Amino acid sequence: MLGEHHDLHHELPEHKDAIHNLKMNDVHFNRLFTEYHDLTHQIESIEKNNSNVSDEHLKEMKTRRLTLKDDMLKMILKD
After folding, report:
1. 27, 19, 7: which is closest to 77 by C-alpha?
2. Is 14 exposed, middle or buried (0-12, 13-18, 19+ CB in 10 A)?
3. What InterPro entries does this protein's entry cite (predicted)?
4. Which of 23, 26, 33, 38 is the most buried (most CB within 10 A)?
5. What is the pLDDT along the chain (79 residues), one digit of tens a residue?
6. Are 68 and 34 a contacting pair, CB within 8 Å?
């Protein structure tokens, strides 16, 4: 949704210390975090600029972002 910022620290503020720790110490988590961050930036840019992207492609991007978030949350809760 336009106007909402979806970076992981805004999405999961109660886990900021665990996120930082995993980013620094877990290569896999850091890769997921980077992909999530990049995807969020792309989605927000598309929405802000009303880019010529199909609704289906934007939905796929958002679904991928949600999958990444779920995967990272599992790692955070396990940590």
Report:
1. 19
2. exposed
3. DUF465, DUF465_sf
4. 33
5. 455 677 888 889 999 999 999 999 999 999 999 999 999 999 999 999 888 899 999 999 999 999 999 999 999 999 7
6. no
**Residue 43 belongs to some domain of the structure:** yes
Domain range enclosing 30: 8-78
Q: Which residues contact 48 (CB under 8 A, 6 or more apart)?
A: 2
**How far apart (Å, rounded) are the C-alpha atoms in residues 55 and 76?**
31
**Which of 47, 34, 43, 76 minimizes the C-alpha distance to 61?**
43
Question: What is the spatial distance between Cα 38 and Cα 7, in angstroms, rounded to a whole number?
Answer: 10
Residue type, 36: Y
